[in-house]
């Protein structure tokens, strides 16, 4: 799956962004399939805005986000839903777990939404063990700590097929050991699919062998 940006500019940030240089905003960018992409930017410069444009849940921009050679706007609602089921997964910065469901139910929801089960249910336990969250799988989403929610949201993003995984500051509430564990799981799952990811963060990090770094 190819993702390309053509002179993408957020309309609300146009004046602010014209005063600084960026590798992404107002540029032509092609993300090479299968690559591990890091996008670094200070707070408030549009990381979440960009991720929402890439996932096509925000549209207040000029320029284009092209998916497989066509702008998002050319796809029907059903086609977009299919792309999000099969080709594009995401870890939102605000995680978006359902508080009334348990951690396991939050993950399973994504798994069973697939027309054909992508992974068997035991895969959830395997991933939970790797991320030290086995003990909270039956706990309500409402009572999970932010770091626990972050790991559940990561597992949820990994129990579906994808060619690209979008992650918006996915380790912000994890300690070093749990960050390492989560990064290793993500890298394994991407490699198993020949998939790539686009990760935004505030600072430099050594969590992955990134193929490319951009400054937003
Ligand atoms: N819908 C909107 N209309 C106008 N301005 C917005 C809108 N959404 C976000 N902004 C502003 O755009 C800027 C970028 O917001 P965004 O959330 O994308 O930043 P960020 O880089 O992800 O920040 P952080 O690192 O704090 O999460 C901020 O100054 C924010 O206040």
UniProtKB/TrEMBL annotation:
Q: Which GO terms describe its molecular function?
A: ATP binding
In this protein, which residues make up the domain named ABC transporter? 3-216
* Record carries keyword Hydrolase: no
Alphabetized, the UniProt keywords read: ATP-binding, Nucleotide-binding, Translocase
SUPFAM superfamilies attached to this UniProt entry? P-loop containing nucleoside triphosphate hydrolases
User: Do you know which Gene3D superfamilies this protein is assigned to?
Assistant: P-loop containing nucleotide triphosphate hydrolases (3.40.50.300)
What's the protein called, per UniProt? ATP-binding cassette domain-containing protein
